[in-house]
Amino acid sequence: MSEPTKAASQPDEPQNIKARIKASYDAIAPAYNAWTVDHFSVRLRYLKEITDQLRPANANSDAASASPLRVLELGCGAGVPVTEKLLVDLAPVHITANDISTGQLDLAREALGEHGEKISTVSTVDWVEGDMMALQFPDASLDAVLGFYSVIHLPQEEQITILERIGRWLKPGTGLFLANFSGDEMKSAIAETWLDQEKGWMYWSGLGVAKTEATLQGAGLKLETSKLEKDTVDGAMFHWVVASRTA
Ligand SMILES: C[S@@+](CC[C@H](N)C(=O)[O-])C[C@H]1O[C@@H](n2cnc3c(N)ncnc32)[C@H](O)[C@@H]1O
Fold first, then answer.
1. pLDDT in tens, 137-177
2. Residue with the nearest Cα to atom 16 of ligand 1?
3. Structural domain containing residue 239
4. In what order do the strands lie in the sheet with 8-9?
5. How many CA atoms lie within 13 A of 84 on its CB side?
6. Domain Methyltransferase spans what residues (predicted)?
7. Count of domains observed in the chain
8. Ligand 1 centroid vs 76 CA: distance in angstroms?
9. In this structure, what CATH number is given to the domain that contains residue 39?
């Protein structure tokens, strides 16, 4: 994706980041979602790494009687393709799908239903609007946490804080984390008209590979995959991580 590389690096964080990001995604959601269809395959490839561990294909799965997995998706966008795929492949699953953008969540509800019922009768989703930094869960309560192209919108210090929280929320020994980060260390990258959208002001940051890895390990997460991958569509570099919560 084109986020960090086409944006201008800035020495400082701008003001009102969250309100501006929300306003931008509310305005550009249809343009972003159409543009990113070409990036679906990389998401689904990494997603399979964790769905295969959470619900192995050879498991004796009686979806109606199995207990629902509990999954958190950070910055779920319009719910396609990831939330949709989770509802099916992890059934039964309960997903808390969070996003700061009202427009994105409206599109998600339209596509998947108020609680995912357009996709599954055994799995459910709660759409939770707001800053992911306001989320709270009991310790050791989640089977998986995912964040596709979303944690990158937090300032560096908040990225550290949310990774530490994720480590506490995941179930020791079994919990899994999947997300992508900027390939580069950057305090603040800004695009004024991202995707050529007049209302497409956008902000990203990155801790860099070494600090992201160290933060994850400090949060009790063991790296299973930690890989820099050049995006096939426009050549931006992302750091993809799959990690498991240690026992
Ligand atoms: C690049 S889009 C990715 C959407 C989706 N995960 C996907 O892969 O297509 C980033 C999403 O994160 C959301 N977002 C940005 N900052 C956020 C925050 N602080 N809390 C929750 N969601 C946020 C945006 O509204 C947007 O829907």
1. 999 999 999 999 999 999 999 999 999 999 999 999 999 99
2. 153
3. 3-245
4. 8-9, 185-191, 202-207
5. 17
6. 71-173
7. 1
8. 6
9. 3.40.50.150
